[in-house]
Amino acid sequence: MTETTAVDGMITGPIGLALVVAGEREGIHGHEHWRRVGENAIDLAHEEGVSCHVALLFAILHDCRRENDGHDPGHGPRAAELAESLGHEALGITPDELRTLTYAMHHHDRGQVTDDPLVGVCWDSDRLDLIRVGTRPDPALLSTTSGRDPVRIALCSDHRAGAPTWERLVKRLADPGRLTMDEQIRRFDANPRFTRAKPESDAVTVTPRRARARVAG
Questions:
Q1: Distance between CA 96 and CA 93 in Å, rounded?
Q2: Which domain holds residue 206?
Q3: pLDDT for 171-181, tens place per residue?
Q4: Whole-prediction pTM value?
Q5: Closest residue by Cα to residue 138 from 200, 62, 75
């Protein structure tokens, strides 16, 4: 397998190939969404013990064959066909992982849940970014224990800053559990930039760490 690397913004290997074939896309199903899904995917895959690499491929490819930002029920199957056409060797995964990836892409917008941990990570990583369209993720429609965590839902419902770069996401593949100081501040210490969904009675409010320390002290 060709190793994925990221140097000076240039990404090579299977992830680089996926980014090239996915192309450029703006809007609510475009690159910023893909990168947020990628961040969620690496977090969840690490916690659930499944492949971060496959989960990141899902993030890149799942919406890349959309024809519009509205109703497009064929975009998942088209993305799955694209992955199949590339093949498991080019994507740096096993044949079984390719079957799992294409299944996850084909069905990701059907509102289903699953007991398959890798498919669940893929679907949850996408649904945790529903806040971009004003919808708070519903725990009943999340498949993984990590995805249903109320604190995670709250964090993903507060877009604190721009999504991480592809280069940073690729670097996290080598050490998915490690966050830089900037990432820790952005994700846990910063005040929310905006919250698009209306508060719910059971919503969790995340108090920034520095505020928690002041209260505790």
A1: 8
A2: 6-216
A3: 999 999 888 88
A4: 0.84
A5: 200
